[in-house]
Design a protein that fits this description.
- By secondary structure, this protein is of the alpha+beta class.
- 30% of the residues lie in helices and 24% in strands.
- The protein has an 8-stranded mixed beta sheet with strand order 6-10-11-16-15-14-13-12. Strands 1-2-3-5-4 form a 5-stranded mixed beta barrel. A 3-stranded antiparallel beta sheet has the order 7-9-8, with no helix packed on it.
- α4 packs across α6, α4 crosses α7 and α6 crosses α8.
- The longest helix is centred in the N-terminal third of the chain and has 23 residues.
- The radius of gyration is 27 Å and the shape is elongated.
């Protein structure tokens, strides 16, 4: 009989009840094998679910050499009868009638033979760690969150906008960007002043990997109304911390005719939607991570969706921090860029709920943010979460051509590279707003992982571009 493969996730649904008593075929990798001289119990997983299906093989029915080769990490095709299970934690199991060994995994060299490997060790074998229960759960959640992002914006009438990865503009004005060039590094062309002659480069000028799709996103918003970008971004900061990556993914909506309040409303609704989606659609994986890594995870996720976010100004936040009597590592003063410890104090100890801070000093925020009438602050907004600190950053954008141009000159930007951007204010300017959500920061919160390198398949950070 020619059997069609059943995904293991389907054996943990109501559908499985109708299949009891029938022949099934499953394929996957061996998580564990145990047993005695009469019977072998094989836990098989195909990546579709956190759950393993138990395969029961009567030793007398199988070649001894085959059973010896079935070790952790080996891949199998199993045909057998689906029966009700007498064991705990599972409703059904498979009584094997045929086992085909696809690929062996040598017990002496396969590095995932044992349980309980440290995260540091697993980062050294990033190409194999998705086979563990933990990273299988994280990566399935990552997929579901990406799908939910697209669904949310599509349902809200946004258009998916593809911003370029290669750019001559620096969105943040920081200059810490990865350069893109085809010039021969051993024989760089020079002009009469002895400087590198980028007119001979592929694009005819100095170009970089993007740090953000926001500026190009504003072009979309001022053309087709509401857009969002969702793609990789790159920062060349030499930051070896649990919160930084050199390559990461960003979600950046930009909306014409939105003011700062509209922007805050959207950000709060968006983040609650994503957390709710994770709880409803990644239940098994979230429960596994709650059990194995962070037993406060589910409570924290429910906490976010059940509370309105507090909204307050930066100046009021500074006053609260100064009056708290709390000893911070970095001293609090007006005009500073708040540190994670300050943000988490506001969220976790003072308000005990997510916070949206607004009206930051203009000197610590980007040039494109709308200036308030006081001349000192801008209509910025940061969404602060427990354990994470800032998870979303955004603002109402400065729609005034004159004010934007003046600010760009003040900080010494190369206006030649930004004429296209200034045209959005020169021709039919409108009030507009937007924000950015770091995808991996979101995943840290939703999975309970504590290091950002553990929520992306192939982390890129200083001195590491392996795999």
């Amino acid at each position: 009989m020619d059997l069609r493969r059943v995904e293991i996730k389907d054996l943990f649904t109501e559908k499985a009840k109708t299949m009891v008593g029938s022949q099934v075929r499953v394929k996957g990798w061996v998580r564990t094998k145990r047993g005695n001289k009469n019977v072998a119990f094989i836990a098989l997983n195909d990546g579709s679910t956190i759950n393993n299906i138990q395969v029961v093989a009567d030793v007398v029915n199988f070649d001894e050499e085959l059973l010896k080769k079935i070790t952790t990490g080996a891949s199998l095709c199993v045909d057998g009868n689906l029966v009700e299970s007498m064991g705990k934690g599972q409703n059904v199991e498979i009584q094997a009638t045929r086992i085909e060994l696809y690929g062996e995994a040598d017990v002496n060299t396969f590095p995932l033979q044992k349980k309980g490997h440290s995260m540091e060790f697993l980062r050294e074998i990033a190409h194999l760690r998705p086979r563990t229960n933990t990273f299988g759960a994280v990566l399935r959640i990552r997929h579901n969150m990406a799908f939910a992002i697209h669904k949310y914006f599509n349902d809200k009438g946004f258009f998916y906008w593809h911003s370029p990865l290669i750019t001559a503009s620096d969105c943040e004005g920081a200059g810490e960007m990865f350069q893109v060039t085809t010039l021969d590094q051993e024989n760089l062309p020079r002009n009469e002043q002895g400087k590198i002659d980028y007119s001979q480069d592929f694009f005819g000028e100095s170009t970089f990997l993007t740090v953000s799709g926001q500026l190009e996103g504003e072009l979309g918003a001022t053309s087709i109304g509401k857009i969002y970008t969702f793609g990789p971004t790159f920062r060349a900061e030499n930051s070896n911390t649990p919160r930084h990556l050199a390559e990461f993914w960003m979600i950046e909506p930009e909306m014409a005719f939105y003011d700062i309040k509209d922007n805050m409303d959207l950000a709060e609704d968006f983040i609650k939607y994503l957390v709710r989606y994770a709880l409803e659609n990644c239940k098994d994986d979230v429960e596994f991570l709650n059990k194995m890594y962070d037993n406060t995870l589910i409570d924290r996720l429910n906490f976010v969706i059940s509370h309105d976010f507090i909204r307050l100004g930066y100046t009021e936040a500074i006053d609260i921090l100064l009056a708290s009597g709390h000893k911070f590592d970095v001293q609090v003063k007006w005009g500073m860029d708040l540190q994670s410890e300050h943000e988490r104090f506001l969220v976790e100890q003072h308000f005990k709920c997510p916070v949206i801070l607004t009206d930051y000093p203009k000197e610590i925020k980007s040039f494109y943010m709308k200036q308030n009438d006081d001349g000192k602050t801008v209509r910025a907004m940061d969404v602060l979460f427990p354990q994470i600190g800032e998870i979303i950053g955004g603002s109402e954008r400065e729609e005034s051509y004159d004010k934007l141009l003046t600010r760009m000159k003040e900080i010494g930007m190369n206006l030649e590279h930004y004429q296209w951007y200034l045209d959005t204010r020169r021709f039919g300017t409108v009030p507009h707003s937007g924000f950015g959500l770091g995808f991996e920061r979101l995943l840290l919160f939703v999975t309970g992982m504590t290091n950002i390198r553990d929520v992306i398949p192939f982390p890129r950070y200083p001195k590491n571009a392996t795999f």
